[in-house]
Amino acid sequence: MKSSREIMEILEAYDLTGSYRAAAELAGCDHHTVARYVALREAGEAPVAREHRVRPIDEYLPKIEELVVRSNGRVRADVVHQRITAMGFTGGERTTRRVVAQVKQRLRAGQRRVFRPWIVEPGLWLQWDWGHGPKIAGRQTQLWCAWLAWSRFRVVIPVMDKTLPTIVACLDTTLRRIGGVPTYALTDNEKTVSVDHIAAIAVRNPDIVEVGRHYGMTIRTCIPADPQTKGGSEATVRIAKADLVPTDTNLLEEYRSFGELETACREFCEQVNDRPHRETHRRPVEALAEERQRLHPLTRKPFTVAFGTTRRVNWDGTVSVEGVRYSVPHQLVDTRVWVRFHGDDLIVTSVDDNGPAEVARHARSTPGNPSIKDEHYPPRPDHHGDRTPRASSAEEAAFLALGSGAAAWLTEAAATGARRIRPKMAEAVTLAKLHPAEEVDRALGIAAIAGRFAENDLIRILTHNTGRDTAEPSRASEDHSLQPGTSAWSSFGLPTSDNDSESDV
Question: Domains in the chain: how many in total?
């Protein structure tokens, strides 16, 4: 076989001489070779195309094609080689692998699907899909990811589950953010949307149909394995997870609370909707302003039937469900909320001008065991740790005016149940007139620390500290005891002197 360069040289020599033999002499080949390549060119065939040589594996080619078609292109080349070797093939496995690859390529070329681009129109399509969010306190969150197909406006909302009430709440919030209702809402075939498939036809969930009728739009589901109907929402999920879920690549910190995740989702939506889209080269927030003119008006009241039953929030910030009190944020006192059980959780939903939102979630409790959460109430003052004395009379004011030592003495004396506190307070005020008030206040502080509230304890401490810069209270230890000594008993029982005897007489 001649190479492509050699064949072109032969044809060039023939065009130059116009003779087979002269061209053969110039190209260094036989004149019959020149005639053959010239005939191929005149017949409209490619003269550089190589002729197929008969190979030993060609007689097994039908069997190879059968095995590839039966496995839908998944059979391994080594398995095919074993089958044809058992049939008498003596060639190498490398030849079999090459032929199997060629057959698979021809099979894929014949089965390749051709997708027609989806040209969207403004005001027609809204898509939503779900993605796994980060774990918060060990609980898996979900990310509701919706986008308006024409303007590419995205809405990402974190939730704790994918139940029908949650879908309704997210759908209502999304419609209120975009400021209108499109004609269709497209999503995946989950049980909350499609309860069954009969003859490849999706059977809608009656509840989701009612939701669509309430807002005046039609709920549609995607065709399985059709990227043209799911590509947009899946791209939104992929981008949201890349920027919101902590991984080793984005180095995000773990979320400490659900509120932090909600804030991160709002900031993400503001960021992606304010930058030019790669395909449209327009900011989605600008395109949304134009698409709103083609959207249907949004109903004032959200679809609340799926949120559960209504409850009025009591004055103590709780709702009663099945005889059990559950707390809700104190800002909702004297308002109406919706409650429902989902598994072992009680979910409380509130509806305001921004749409429905989950405001509380409790584990199911039993009567007599209310479920109260501290985060639903404002911080309580520490009444036990802030016992500051406040004077209610002139005598009390004069005593407390001595300083912090006086306040500490009164607090500790009252706690230990000391007797005659008022007379001792008056004694301290009198001593403050005879001694510096700072010294009296320091003596009261020492008495409070040492727990000395008996009669004359204050004056003893004051006398002991007079002229001293510091006065530390005596404390019992391994080397020192507070018990009085026995030196006074050393002369007990000894004979007395004569003078003592006469005086006794």
Answer: 4
- 137, 252: one domain: yes
- Residue labelled with tokens 């499609």: 194
For residue 135, the one-letter residue type is: K
In which domain, by residue range, is 154 found?
125-294
Task: Give the 3-state secondary structure of residue 349.
Answer: strand
User: What integer pLDDT is reported at residue 381 of this predicted model?
Assistant: 62
The DSSP secondary-structure symbol of 374 reads G
- Relative to beta strand 201-204, strand 345-352 is unpaired
Q: Which of 124, 133, 148 is nearest to 272 (CA)?
A: 148
The answer to the question of residue 382 being in a domain is no
Low-confidence ranges of the chain (pLDDT < 50): 471, 497-505
Beta bridge partners of 181: 296
Give the three-class secondary structure for 332.
helix
Whole-number pLDDT of residue 471: 47
Asked whether residue 488 is assigned to any structural domain, the reply reads: no
Q: Do 325 and 215 have their domain in common? A: no
Rounded CA separation 104/118 (Å):
30
Which burial class, exposed, middle or buried, applies to 68 when counting CB atoms under 10 A from its CB (0-12, 13-18, 19+)?
Answer: buried
